[in-house]
């Protein structure tokens, strides 16, 4: 049955307009994005197929183009639309924190870093530079590849902090194929960088590990700073 044949108060778009997006299921929200289904499938049915295939919204949104486009009813045009939505979300969150005290908005910062890093197929080390009022100066993806204490250079971090006149920093890096648990190398990197920045009186506020799926882990909350 087509969604247009459903009772009006059960249709995803009408539910959203009446009650807001929070009450909708993942499949209903995705159906609004899809707009139409395929032969014999409503948009909600197709959304359920996609979620069943990829497991979670995160995996779906971060799927490679070829894998996403291989699903019947999808294609590269729909993949491009989904990636545009994701980029809009990243930019909207970046605007929200641009003039805020980042220490007062930890959830927004985590959501932003998750959108920025979780989808990347390779490890990336990001440094979030803050001014004296903990407002965002800039976020820079500084190192890429397999991150070890020998591939993340304190000298480069110190140079960047001095160049941007940062008063404090937040570190973040992703674990593309693993959980959020920090490795021994992650702890060594953090300790080395914290010691280097202490020499120029710059505080390390936190180091967040962003897994491919799930919530980021905070070094500060786990007593690892």
Give a structural overview.
This protein is of the alpha+beta class. The protein has helices spanning 12-19, 26-34, 43-54, 57-61, 65-69, 76-97, 106-117, 154-164, 184-198, and strands at residues 124-130, 136-144, 168-175, 203-211, 217-218. A 5-stranded mixed sheet has the order 2-1-3-4-5, with helices on both faces. α9 (184-198) links the parallel β3 and β4 (203-211). α6 runs antiparallel to α7. The radius of gyration is 21 Å and the shape is elongated. The N and C termini lie far apart (56 Å). 28% of the residues are buried.
Amino-to-carboxy terminus distance: 56 Å
Spatial order of strands in the largest sheet = 2-1-3-4-5
**Secondary structural class:** alpha+beta
Strand share of the residues? 15-25%
User: Helices and strands, in N-to-C order?
Assistant: HHHHHHHEEHEHEE
Radius of gyration: 21 Å
Mean pLDDT equals 88
Shape: elongated
Helix content: 40-55%
Q: What does the largest sheet look like?
A: 5 strands, mixed
**Count of alpha and pi helical runs:** 9
Unreliable residue stretches: none
Tell me the total number of β-strands. 5
Topology (SSEs and partners):
Layout: H1 12-19, H2 26-34, H3 43-54, H4 57-61, H5 65-69, H6 76-97, H7 106-117, E1 124-130, E2 136-144, H8 154-164, E3 168-175, H9 184-198, E4 203-211, E5 217-218
Parallel strand pairs: 3-4
Antiparallel strand pairs: 1-2, 1-3, 4-5
Helix pairs in contact: 2-3, 6-7, 8-9
């Amino acid at each position: 049955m087509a969604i247009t044949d459903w009772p009006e108060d059960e249709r995803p778009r009408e539910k959203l307009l009446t009650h807001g997006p929070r009450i909708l299921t993942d499949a209903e929200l995705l159906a609004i994005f899809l707009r139409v289904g395929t032969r014999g499938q409503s948009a909600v049915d197709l959304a359920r197929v996609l979620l069943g295939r990829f497991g979670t919204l995160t995996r779906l949104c971060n799927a490679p183009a070829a894998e996403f486009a291989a699903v019947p009813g999808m294609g590269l045009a729909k993949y491009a639309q989904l990636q545009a939505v994701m980029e809009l979300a990243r930019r909207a969150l970046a605007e929200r924190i641009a003039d805020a005290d980042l220490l007062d908005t930890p959830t927004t910062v985590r959501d932003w870093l998750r959108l920025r890093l979780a989808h990347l197929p390779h490890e990336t080390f990001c440094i979030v530079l803050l001014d004296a009022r903990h407002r965002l100066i800039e976020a820079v993806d500084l190192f890429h590849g397999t991150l070890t204490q020998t591939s993340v250079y304190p000298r480069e971090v110190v140079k960047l902090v001095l160049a941007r006149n940062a008063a404090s920093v937040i570190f973040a890096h992703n674990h593309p194929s693993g959980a959020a648990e920090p490795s021994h190398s992650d702890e060594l990197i953090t300790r080395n960088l914290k010691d280097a920045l202490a020499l120029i009186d710059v505080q390390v506020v936190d180091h967040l590990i962003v897994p491919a799926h799930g919530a980021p882990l905070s070094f500060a909350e786990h007593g690892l700073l």
